[in-house]
């Protein structure tokens, strides 16, 4: 078991099975899966554990966490991905605008 699993398990008791599964997906040097969907009852720590886990990975890894429910159109999905990967935060100073208007994954890749 890796130190990452031990650190996160100490912070989130009784969630070791989920943490070990995440480590199997992300932590053993194999290629990452294209997407991971966490589901389950509300307020059980799914998002918190993932947000604690991902920063402990290799620093060259880019990732974005988003809610599939909030991204109800492709445009919102692609703009959210682009904003998260680039660190852009829509706020009052930028008129709550996305970094760029993107309509497809091709546009996202071109912006990156």
UniProtKB/TrEMBL annotation:
Record GO biological process: DNA replication initiation
Family: Belongs to the ORC5 family.
InterPro entries to which the protein is assigned, alphabetical: AAA_16, ORC5, P-loop_NTPase
Xref: PANTHER family: ORIGIN RECOGNITION COMPLEX SUBUNIT 5
GO MF entries: DNA replication origin binding
Species assigned in the record: Culex pipiens
Name of this protein: Origin recognition complex subunit 5
GO cellular component, one term: nuclear origin of replication recognition complex
Every Orc1-like AAA ATPase domain range: 13-88
Pfam families: AAA_16
Highest taxon listed in the record's lineage: Eukaryota
């Amino acid at each position: 078991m890796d130190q990452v699993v031990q650190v996160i398990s100490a912070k989130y008791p009784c969630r070791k099975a989920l943490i070990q599964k995440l480590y199997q997906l992300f932590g053993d040097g194999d290629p990452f899966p294209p997407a991971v969907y966490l589901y389950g009852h509300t307020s059980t720590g799914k998002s918190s554990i993932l947000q604690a886990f991902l920063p402990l990975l290799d620093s060259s890894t880019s990732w974005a966490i988003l809610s599939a429910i909030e991204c109800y159109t492709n445009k919102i999905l692609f703009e959210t991905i682009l904003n998260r990967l680039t660190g852009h935060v829509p706020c009052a100073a930028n008129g709550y605008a996305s970094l760029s208007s993107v309509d497809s994954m091709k546009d996202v890749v071109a912006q990156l």
